[in-house]
Amino acid sequence: MKLNELLPTYTPLEKPSNFDYKFTLFTPVYNRADTIHRVFDSLEKQTFKDFEFLIINDGSKDNSHEVIQELINKSNLNIRYINNEVNRHKMACIIQGVELANGEFFLPLDSDDECVENALEIFLERYNSIPKEKLSNISGVTCLCVDQNGNLVDDKFKVDPLYSTSFENRLNELSLSEKWGFIKTDILRGIYVNPEVYSKGYIPEGILWNLIAKHKYQTMYTNDVLRIYYLDTGNRISNQDHAKDAFGMAVFSLCILNWFYKDYFWKNPKVFLIRVYSLIRAAIFLDFKKQDYLNAIESKGIKFLVNLCWPFKRLFLKIIG
Asked: Which of 194, 229, 264 is the last residue of a domain?
């Protein structure tokens, strides 16, 4: 399998899907028996009720399955529960969830977090406020988070609402800290992710958001604070492990380098130099050869940089410890 064949692709749907709900609240679960109740409690309190709750247990090794079943039996929510026997990691669960979703808007909520009781109501109000001429090019709405102590996880946007993309935020050096938002389900259904990337460690969700950006969809960013993001969870996927995350980081770096280099390199070269560094750092832990990476890179300039830096990749290992 060639590395560039592992990059996701997007093809718009020929006709829109029919949906039963406005939102699909989607929660992938892995070893979250002690925290999954937070999601149930949050959704039970929602002031806006036109949503389904889709849960995928991703081969948990603890008693998450039994806890989820117990919570479902006590709940009045519209719930669909999938219990995967084999752990395939979060990206596979997201794609599985998108295929199953019956909601127009797809809203992931991690299994250790909460949201405020009027979160869905505010999301819909913000979406409905978008000018009609913009709607076809809007992928969704994204808001801010606080941690479990009530502290903002990120700075507020200087412009509210801000119409932008994940890549534009990176290019303009806006903070990329944790945020929360929904995406139109039909846009996500146009994305193809090669199953070869599944079960190979953490694959950044940013791959999906940057692919959407590549195809000129914008997001409405607001300063509404709608999610409580717990920072004290032991096996949170944002706890970085360079070896375990290497495959996903290599794919993510190739996506940024191939999708945006031609149009944006000279607007902020640092963005692309960081991705070259990340790619070579990831290569330390992977079995691919240098030529595999060069064959996957479209730009001659980026190929040159990778060639130039490759002899020093062991130095990167010393830098990151």
From this structure: 229
Q: Are 105 and 136 in the same domain?
A: yes
Digit-coded pLDDT (tens) for 243-291: 888 999 999 999 999 999 999 999 999 999 999 999 999 999 999 999 9
* pTM exceeding the 0.90 threshold for the entire prediction: yes
Distances 143 to 136, 174, 255 between C-alpha atoms, Å: 20, 14, 25
Using alpha carbons, list the distances in angstroms from residue 15 to 26, 156, 181.
Answer: 23, 37, 24
Give me the half-sphere count of Cα atoms (radius 13 Å) on the Cβ side of residue 226. Answer: 25
3-state secondary structure of 163: strand
Give tens-digit pLDDT for 180-230: 999 999 999 999 999 999 888 889 999 999 999 999 999 999 999 999 999
Give the burial class of 99: count Cβ atoms within 10 A of its Cβ; 0-12 exposed, 13-18 middle, 19 or more buried.
exposed
Same domain, 157 and 86: yes
Q: List the structure tokens of 162.
A: 């801000």
User: What CATH number is attached to the domain comprising 139?
Assistant: 3.90.550.10
Per-residue DSSP letter, 146: E
Rounded to 5°, angle at Cα 144 from 276 and 247 = 30
